[in-house]
Design a protein that fits this description.
- The protein is α+β, with helices and mostly antiparallel strands.
- It has one domain.
- Helix content is 35%, strand content 21%.
- The protein has four helices and five strands; from the N terminus they run H-E-H-E-E-H-E-E-H.
- A five-stranded antiparallel β-sheet has the order 2-3-1-4-5.
- The longest helix is centred in the middle third of the chain and has 19 residues.
- It starts with a helix and ends in a 22-residue tail after the last helix.
């Protein structure tokens, strides 16, 4: 049974998808930074949003491959993932900035200080709602951006299985791979 927020989410995703024709192999997903309790929006986290806004201003204006949404429970990025590319570096950097801005904002007086969850979700196969939790992080925890990127890509792969797949992004240094024997 659907909850009201799930139907609202479906509508938000449909609207995002209607803004431009996706390229072949692209899938629209939501990347949500959600507080576990309380609020994470401008009213309660003005210092964090100053840093988030600075990062948003640096991104390409008019870029229709992503949208930034503000919610009481935390910010959300709606993004297109291109097959063979994975998440854009700018999106990874923005997510890291949001998480770090939350910690910095709390140090400067923002409230509340509950942990954040990073989740990816999408409308799958018509109206089916799917969600994967990427990580849970407290405001005093350090953020490893390389690990964040890997966890996001892993969660997106799982989220998109049975649908459009996102191949592993190409890495600057070749990674050792082991083959499973059959």
């Amino acid at each position: 049974m659907d909850t009201g927020w799930q139907e609202t989410f479906r509508g938000r995703m449909r609207h995002f998808e209607s803004e431009r024709v996706p390229l072949p192999g692209e899938a629209a997903v939501s990347i949500k930074v959600r507080i576990t309790s309380g609020c994470f929006h401008r009213e309660h986290s003005p210092r964090a949003y100053e840093l988030i806004d600075q990062s948003l201003r640096k991104l390409s204006p008019g870029d229709s491959s992503f949208a930034f949404e503000e919610h009481e429970s935390g910010p959300e990025l709606l993004v297109y993932i291109a097959a063979g590319v994975g998440l854009a570096t700018s999106v990874i950097n923005l997510i890291a900035t949001i998480i770090k801005a939350r910690s910095e904002g709390i140090r400067k007086g923002d409230h509340p200080s509950h942990p954040l969850e990073l989740i990816v979700r999408r409308v799958h196969s018509g109206n089916e709602f799917r969600e994967e939790t990427v990580l849970r992080i407290g405001h005093t925890d350090s953020l490893d951006e390389a690990k964040l990127e890997q966890q996001l890509n892993d969660a997106l792969q799982k989220l998109l299985k049975d649908g459009k797949q996102i191949p592993e992004p190409k890495r600057s240094a070749p990674a050792k791979r082991t083959r499973k024997r059959r």
